Amino acid sequence: MQDFTEKAIILRVGRFREADLWLRLFTPHRGLLTAFAFGGSRSRRRFVGCLDPLNLVLFGFSRSRTGNYLSLTEGTLLDGRPGLRGNASRLGIAANCVKFFEAVHVEPEGSVRSFNLLEESLEAVERCPDLSPMFPVFFRLRTAFEQGYGPSLDTCSRCGKVLKTSVAPLLLIEEGRISCEACATEHGWRIPLNAGSLAVLDRVRRESPRQWCSLVPDAADRRRLFDVADGFMRWHLGLRWEDGRFLKT
C-alpha cells in the first residue's frame, strides 16, 4: 500500500510510549484502521488539535518500510465536535454509538455508506436542539439494517398480509422475519410488535439520523424497539452490552 490521504473519524486513542500514540480510525474507503502518531502527544505542527476521539480529520498515512504498520504523517482537523465536548450527556450518547459501530464493523466492504451513517449520526447528536433518548437504539437498528439484517416491514413473510393492519405481528429473531400471528412459528425468540413500532422501524430504516432526533415513541413501543435492537445485536451480530462495553457473545 502506498502513502495516501483520507478522511477519518477517530474512534479511540491510546498512548504506547511517552510521546507516541496509537489511533483506531474509521475511513470511508479502507474501513477500520489502526495507525501510529509518532510524537503525536507533543506535536505542535503536524497534528494541531486533531488527535481526540470523535474528531473528523484529514490524515496523511504512510506504510512502514516492512509493511507491518501505518503511521500518520500529518492531520488537518475538519470537525472537532465542540458541541459534544461541553455536554456530558450527548458525549455519552455519541461514545455509545461509536463503541457499537467499532464492534460491528470489520470488513471495508460498504464502508462509504457506513462512514456516512456514523458521520451524520455524530452531527445529529451534536447539533439537534432536541435529542431523543432512544437515539443509540435507533443507531443500532439502522446499523443492523445496513448490515443486511432488516426484515420486510410491510407484509407477512409467508402469507403477504399487510403487517400494519395485522392484529399481532411478531418478529421472529432467529429467522430474521416478521410474521402475522397466524403464520408465526410457535418456538424461538418472538417479539410482539404493533403498528406504532413498525412505523418507527420504517422511519429509522429510511430517514437520516437528524430526523430521528425528534422521534420519541411511547413507553410500550420503546420497550419493543429496545428488545428488537437487543435481539438483532445478540443473535445476528453476536454482541452484548456489559460493563460499559459491547462484548462478543
UniProtKB/TrEMBL annotation:
Keywords: DNA damage, DNA recombination, DNA repair
The organism's place on the tree of life at top rank: Bacteria
GO CC, one annotated term: bacterial nucleoid
Pfam families: RecO_C (PF02565), RecO_N (PF11967)
One BP annotation, GO: double-strand break repair
Occurrences of domain DNA replication/recombination mediator RecO N-terminal (ranges): 1-79
NCBIfam families assigned to the protein according to its UniProt record, in alphabetical order: reco
Family, similarity comment: Belongs to the RecO family.
Role, per record: Involved in DNA repair and RecF pathway recombination.
HAMAP family (UniProt xref): RecO
PANTHER family named in the record: DNA REPAIR PROTEIN RECO
Name of this chain's protein: DNA repair protein RecO
Species annotation: Desulfobaculum xiamenense
